[in-house]
From TrEMBL:
Protein name: Stress responsive protein
InterPro entries for the chain: Dabb, Dimeric_a/b-barrel
Keywords: Plasmid
Originating organism: Bosea vaviloviae
RNA-binding found in the keyword field: no
Domain Stress-response A/B barrel: 5-100
Length: 113
């Protein structure tokens, strides 16, 4: 796979109270948004916080795009990404991930919107 890649990660976070979960969500959002412009090949990063509050929902979703699979692989061990992971410690209790190639035609369409 040589083209652009979308990397999506969703987490459920620790917190015994709604306030603790809200604080954890904000911490994750702020930490990952802080990576904008710091990692070569990371073309887009977006962090969404769940507002549905349904019991089966994840708390936070990270949607990012990389120039290619090699850049995504480099991101995994990049010092800034590792710093964020250390900073967040054991906040997560569950993690789900999907990586997939971005269809070039679809990507061009999204750029026009």
């Amino acid at each position: 796979m040589s083209g652009p890649v979308k990397h999506i990660v969703m987490w459920r976070l620790r917190g015994d109270t709604p306030e603790e979960r809200a604080a954890a969500r904000l911490k994750v959002k702020t930490a990952f948004e802080g990576l904008k412009g710091l990692i070569d090949g990371l073309n887009h990063i977006e962090v969404g916080v769940d507002v549905s509050n349904v019991d089966y929902a994840c708390d936070v979703v990270l949607v990012s795009e990389f120039a290619n699979m090699s850049d995504l692989t480099s991101y995994a061990t990049h010092p800034e990404h590792l710093r964020v992971r250390r900073e967040l410690g054991d906040l997560r209790i569950d993690r789900h991930q999907v990586d997939y190639p971005i269809d070039a035609a679809e990507h061009r369409y999204e750029d026009r919107e």
